[in-house]
Write a structure and sequence with these properties.
This is Flavin-dependent thymidylate synthase. It is a single chain. The chain is α+β, with helices and mostly antiparallel strands. Helices cover 44% and strands 18% of the residues. A four-stranded antiparallel beta sheet has the order 2-3-8-4. A two-stranded parallel sheet has the order 1-5. The N and C termini lie far apart (50 Å).
């Protein structure tokens, strides 16, 4: 049997992007200025400071008054490695394009998620308005021990079925949702803002969210990449309560 690997992290890589604040500005200004070439829209050295101030003001206006369509004319593709249960939550967001690794066509690697010791374990409050708090050392040890035992047995049975000639699409049924998978996901900034508003917990948001920590880990890494691509849009998103326009 292949050696089993246990992880407590997620992988997010920006593999391709065409996403700039200027994409938002071009799309918004076509409403009032009509067709423009890229050269006609560029700042001149003499007007740069005033134009940048105007650009920031326009993006803030669009975000504040929720004129959302200009934020759709861009694209980001991320490569994500995470436990299957994260992908099942992610794909409830019907605002992106997905391609996930298929256990019908390839044998999955023996990589499984085990919560890190710092992962909060105890739910306090009612659904829709609850928090998670740390567990005891005993609870953390039990979580790790039980998870390692369960996934090890499951993978052993998975391997046994494959060795007996059973189809991968049948054998995969014994694998738990803690199994790592991988996918490419492509979305625009408006869709990403919607995802972040629901899958991150931040002070000062207009509509508080209570995401599962593991999908929040993915969201945080995606947010870091997006913030570097579209700083004006990112700043406006935070300034106006992290609500997708």
């Amino acid at each position: 049997m292949a050696e089993i690997e246990f992880r407590s992290d997620v992988t997010v890589e920006l593999v391709r992007s065409s996403a700039h604040d200027s994409d938002v500005l071009f799309a918004a200004r076509v409403s009032t200025q009509g067709e423009q070439t890229l050269e006609e829209s560029m700042h001149t050295p003499e007007s740069r400071a005033e134009d940048e101030k105007r650009d920031k003001g326009l993006i803030n206006y669009l975000m504040r008054d929720r004129h959302g369509s200009p934020f759709e004319h861009n694209s980001m593709t991320f490569y994500v490695q995470a436990p299957i249960f994260v992908f099942r939550e992610f794909m409830r967001h019907r605002i992106a394009s997905y391609n996930e690794e298929s256990a019908r066509y390839r044998e999955l690697n023996p990589v499984f998620y085990v919560p890190a010791p710092a992962r909060n374990l105890i739910q306090v409050g009612k659904p829709g308005a609850y928090d998670f708090v740390p567990g005891t050392a005993e609870q953390a040890a039990l979580t790790r021990e039980a998870t390692i035992h369960a996934v090890s047995v499951a993978y052993q049975e998975y391997e046994r079925m494959l060795e007996a000639g059973i189809a991968r699409e049948v054998a995969r049924g014994v694998l738990p949702v803690a199994t790592y998978s991988s996918m490419y996901v492509t979305m625009n900034a408006r869709s990403l803002m919607n995802f972040l508003s629901l899958r991150t917990k931040r002070e000062g948001t207009h509509f508080p969210s209570f995401p599962q920590r593991e999908i929040e880990m993915v969201a945080e890494k995606m947010e870091d990449e997006w913030a570097k691509l579209m700083p004006l849009t990112y700043a406006a998103f935070n300034e106006h309560g992290r609500v997708s326009p």
